[in-house]
Here is the input.
Amino acid sequence: MYVTIDGIEKSFVNERKEQVQVLDHIDIEMEKGSFVSIVGPSGCGKSTLLYMIAGLESADRGSIRIAGNEVKKPGPDRVVVFQEAGLFPWLTVLENVKYGLLLKKMPKQEAEAKAIDMLKMVHLSNYIHSYPHQLSGGMKQRVSIARALVMEPDILLMDEPFSALDEQTRMVLHKELIDIWKKTKVTIFFVTHNIREAVLLSEKVIVFGTRPGKVKDVIPVPTSTDGVLPDSVTLHTEQRILAILEKEIEKVLKEEMGDDYSFTTNHLHRNDSGDMGSHI
Amino acid sequence: MIAVIWEVTSRLSVLPDFMFPRLTQVLETLFNGLVNGQFLAAIGKSMSRLLIGFAIAIVLGVIMGYLIWRYKLVEDTLGFLVTALQSIPSIVWFPLAIIWFGLNDFSILFIVTIGATWTMTVSATSGFRNVPTLYQRVAKTFGSTGLHFIRTVIMPASVPQLLSGLRIAWAFSWRALMAGELLGSGGGLGQLLETGRSLGQMDLVISVMIIIAVIGTIMDNVVFMRLERSVQKKWGLA
Here is the structure.
């Protein structure tokens, strides 16, 4: 396997000085060039796992190997797209995209040409000399994706990259991400709390349980997706995942609001999120 | 308006000319001083001291700020000391400086430096501390470490805070310089003030005050304001 996550465990110490286990024996395998998503309730440690693959956090136990090499520290072969774009406000769009390339000691002109090419791919060639604050949220996230892709990473780690964007922008970016993935064959590890997003985009969805975070189920997504519109197959997959997550969500709510809380999905709720039109 | 009131009250007042000079008299002194080079020499002397002291203070402040931010041990020891030292007006160091270095240029330089160093340290520390984790993470995933990390992320990300630190540090060292020159020796604007006092020439004293005010305003409005505004514009903070 290209990416092997083997028996990862992690605990934090909370404000009350108690040990809280966030990740409990995580085993995940990913093939080269695959698109894998992780969904789970908030606080299930999915972002923590992503930071571990990035090398930004260390595990208490277990190991992560990419193409046989163990991950020890951050490196340009595993680039992260964060929830907020995190562009450097003191650099222009072009300079932001060039940042990593120049770090790799690439000659200036070559880096510039590559960065411009990549910015064209995310449709931002008119904004290369703008500063980040002059861009909209969706444009910033595009720059952030370009900045990651231009490094030609082995793995693209995405930590809820679209969750701060509005619906239309998100749809457009879904489509673009799928196009880019098909074009570049990059391996993508995608963390999200949005089930539909996970199903629409990825080939495989890993469902996380919470407290402590562990793999509940791995669900393959059958259709070759174009990342735009749901069809009956993806809807069915969505419902399967939701059914698995229901218990987890209830667990979280009970912990936060007290034991008398009961969370069951009903038609009203489903109509809101999932199967619009399927009951006509 | 102020000029007219000044001129009239001065002419009517019972105080002798040397205590409350007329505006025209002050302007004449100012003009003569500028023309014969006496003021310019003093300004040059003062500014060179100020710039050297200020530059040393900035370098020291940034380095200490970095160490305090980076190492917990330094924060607990030096960090605490700096907060305490910051509350001592720098002219208080002057007697000590005279004993250590003698009544010379070096003593004045010393208090100018010390006047700005602590403020700069405090600003630099808080500037570094407020660099968003996100930027640091981004840079690290691209493989930035060590000096490159400090140069390309930590320093630029704390520029807005460093700039306001610079401005306060400038004001502090400017005050320290004047106090030091008044008490000390070896030329400079402060020395000129002292000369004016001992000769009973209030027109000279007021001329120097005007020069000090003009230099202060120029530095604040032209240099620092412009720097701050350009950063704000670039970052989209304005």
About this structure: The beta strands of chain A are 3-13, 19-30, 35-39, 61-66, 69-70, 78-81, 155-159, 187-192, 204-209, 214-220. The mean pLDDT of chain A is 81.
